[in-house]
């Protein structure tokens, strides 16, 4: 059975004796090691992936709240992950703070308008002068 096996020589044995086994880090052309070049964030990814945001020159998933590598294939793979899909669904179900505060402001404006109408109707019903409207709201605010 041993005659069918092909044994490969170790990498350290294949090198000429003048080279050292340890490298200083400047050479990256060793067998099997490829350095991934630093990729730049592309603005068109923002239109392709609506959950994506640029953060310090790298891709950032707003649904998962984590940074990723600037590579379109990895972004597509991230889109298909079940954890990402669940996080997107959770984000859609959340009420945004801006819309929540706007609704409160709308109800506050309605309350103010109703209070002003009530004061005007009170003054008209009791045949009081309209000059009271300059002073009456301030008096009611203190009380």
DSSP E strands, number: 3
Any idea what the shape is? rod-shaped
Q: Which parts are unreliable, with pLDDT below 50 for 5 consecutive residues or more? A: 20-29
Please, how many domains? Answer: 2
Mean pLDDT comes to 78
SSE run: HHEEEHHHH
Strand content: 5-15%
The strand order across the widest sheet is 1-2-3
Q: Classify the secondary structure makeup into a structural class.
A: mainly alpha
Helix content: 40-55%
Oligomer: single chain
What is the first-to-last residue Cα distance? 101 Å
Task: Tell me about the largest β-sheet.
Answer: 3 strands, antiparallel
**Total DSSP helices:** 6
Computed over alpha carbons, the radius of gyration is 35 Å
Description:
- The chain is mainly alpha-helical.
- It has 2 domains: 39-94, no CATH class; 97-142, no CATH class.
- It has 6 helices and 3 strands; from the N terminus they run ααβββαααα.
- The chain has a 3-stranded antiparallel beta sheet, with no helix packed on it.
- Strand 1 (52-55) and strand 2 (58-61) form a beta hairpin.
- The radius of gyration is 35 Å and the shape is rod-shaped.
Give a brief description:
This protein is mainly alpha-helical.
Structure keywords:
143 residues, mainly alpha, 2 domains, three-stranded antiparallel sheet, 3 strands
